[in-house]
Design brief:
The chain has helices at about 10-20, 80-95, 115-120, 125-130, 180-200, 255-280, 295-310, 360-370, and strands at about 25-30, 35-40, 45-50, 100-110, 130-140, 150, 155, 160-165, 170, 225-235, 240, 245-255, 280-285, 295, 315, 335-340. Helix 2 (about 80-95) packs across helix 8 (about 360-370) and helix 5 (about 180-200) packs antiparallel against helix 6 (about 255-280). Helix content is about 25%, strand content about 25%. The protein has 2 domains: about 10-155 and about 290-370, Aminopeptidase (3-Layer(aba) Sandwich); about 160-285, Alpha-Beta Plaits. The chain is of the alpha/beta class. This is M20/M25/M40 family metallo-hydrolase. Its cofactor is Mn(2+). GO terms for molecular function: hydrolase activity; metal ion binding.
Length: about 375
């Protein structure tokens, strides 16, 4: 009901504290509105459970009693559900004495924007409490309700934002030959990148198989798949003026640094070729992005009996192609990430995203069982 954006989430923080301050835990504040709640069981090691907190700049279209109260902001990625599960775990831990491990609950802002996970990890909080494993859950619309799923090893790819800026030459639309049409060049560049990438083994096809005229890449191992996608372009000033600029925004995904370098090199090569062909200027930049989410194989093996005992668990064959800054926790401690099915088929980041809150009981049960 109260989705907020990025790092500063005052109402969300206030709500979380209304529960956490009633529990027997030590609170640490960081990363804007981030909260870490430590439950001291007198043990040497600590199990951490992470929830993201931030919403998205999306106008919600749902009509329900818990619809967003903030115009243009929405929990369209399930972070409200993640927080609810983690708060419920805190209440469970608070009611139990003699647990075999200390517990750290991490409520993290800025998952959707700046990568708040990295900032939290760099505070040293995991080392301070001797965190020996980190767990997290993300709601997932394309699994049946209450199904928990994961896999060992590569689970989600590295991601980065890519930006292409094309500089052409303006002219009147009745004399396009006097200019250098950045809009036309943009179309050529996008097609060039898609076509070249499509021939790389493991490339995610840009069109459904058997449609379009861009060839389909040969198959590859699941963790060798790569993706290039452009989702936004701005170009020109008026319908009867040759555009002298274009800005193209997109994303890339890859599971290894080597593959990431190869596809960014591919984009750079296409840019240079288009510059030579059209006599324009093309600037290519990209963010460093999030590392891939790699579930620790040894930890996964250790908890596998717990997973098999769940009412509904599925070990996935293929990794997902979404990205998550949960990956940073795995650089500091053994970590395993899970998805929890909503069964709706409504994609994440949709204006009508919703779920039955009863599924959250399955996530809480997983967390409780992981505590041992």
């Amino acid at each position: 009901m109260i989705p907020e954006l990025d790092r500063e989430l005052p109402e969300t923080k206030k709500y979380l504290l209304s529960v956490l301050e009633s529990l027997d835990c030590s609170l640490t504040f960081m990363c804007g509105s981030g909260i870490c709640a430590f439950f001291d069981m007198g043990q040497k090691d600590t199990f951490a459970f992470r929830s993201d907190m931030d919403g998205l700049p999306i106008e919600e279209k749902n009509i329900c009693e818990y619809v967003s109260l903030h115009r243009g902001r929405m929990h369209a990625c399930g972070h409200d559900g993640h927080m609810a599960m983690t708060l419920a775990l805190g209440e469970y831990v608070n009611s139990r004495a003699g647990l075999n491990h200390n517990v750290l609950l991490i409520f993290q802002p800025a998952e959707e924007t700046l990568g708040g996970a990295e900032e939290i990890c760099r505070t040293g909080i995991l080392e301070k409490y001797n965190v020996t494993r980190v767990f997290g859950i993300h709601l997932w619309p394309f699994k049946e309700k209450s199904v928990i799923a994961s896999k060992p090893g590569a689970f989600m790819p590295r991601s980065a934002e890519i930006n292409l800026h094309i500089r052409g030459k303006a002219a009147h639309g009745t004399a396009p030959y006097e200019g250098n049409d950045a809009l036309y060049i943009s179309a050529s560049l996008i097609r060039s990148i898609y076509t070249e990438h499509s021939q790389r083994p493991g490339a995610i096809p840009h069109f459904p198989r058997g449609t379009g005229d861009i060839p389909t890449a040969p198959p590859a191992a699941p963790d060798e798949r790569t993706l290039i996608h452009f989702g936004k372009m701005e170009s020109g000033y008026a319908r009867n003026v040759v555009s002298d600029y274009s800005h193209i925004l997109g994303t890339v995904r890859a599971f290894s640094d080597e593959d990431f370098k190869e596809i960014t090199d591919l984009i750079r090569s296409c840019c240079r070729r288009i510059e030579a062909e059209y006599g324009c200027q093309v600037e290519f930049t990209h963010s460093s992005g999030y590392p891939p989410v790699v579930n620790n194989r040894e930890l996964y093996r250790e908890i596998h009996p717990v997973l098999e005992a769940l009412p509904s668990y599925e070990e996935m064959e293929l990794p997902l192609m979404i990205s998550e800054d949960f990956s940073f926790y795995g650089l500091y401690a053994p970590a395993v990430f899970f998805i929890l099915g909503t069964g709706t088929g409504i994609p994440l980041h949709s204006s009508d995203f919703d779920f039955d809150e009863d599924i959250l009981a399955a996530g809480l049960e997983l967390y409780i069982r992981l505590l041992g």
